């Protein structure tokens, strides 16, 4: 049974981030306790609007949790070296833009992508194979273009089986 989320093409990478990389951050927003571990995108956006949270803080929290949990989970294969800069840019855009409604729906929200999704940046796209390490993709994948347009911060790449298990006979991909 597949779980459907509104605009799932945008939210799947974020859901992976929130599940894989739980963060402990507490604040009060509209009189209610706010924790990153259980926050929805709307709650994070509200925290941004109310200046309770910045994109940089959110990225730093996720990077800290990745550093702590990844040696055990092996879930993240690569961190985007530009993630903090992207978060800083999102924060600057948010503070300098009086009309925040013009910002994308994922503005400043960090996402992890599977390693099969092409990004035209400093990240590798290897499909889990060392054979593709250092290869250069011609452009961002369509979903990455949409994520960037929506303002998402590309945090890094998530692990998967080599070649996404498409080379194994009788084996169904697990990613």
UniProtKB/TrEMBL annotation:
One of this protein's Pfam families, by short name? Amidase
Q: Where are the transmembrane segments?
A: 9-29
Q: Which domain of life is it from?
A: Eukaryota
All copies of domain Amidase, residue ranges:
58-165
SUPFAM superfamilies, sorted: Amidase signature (AS) enzymes
Q: What InterPro entries does the database record attribute to this sequence?
A: Amidase_dom, AS_sf
Which keywords has UniProt assigned to this entry?
Answer: Membrane, Transmembrane, Transmembrane helix
Descriptive protein name: Amidase domain-containing protein
Origin species? Carpinus fangiana
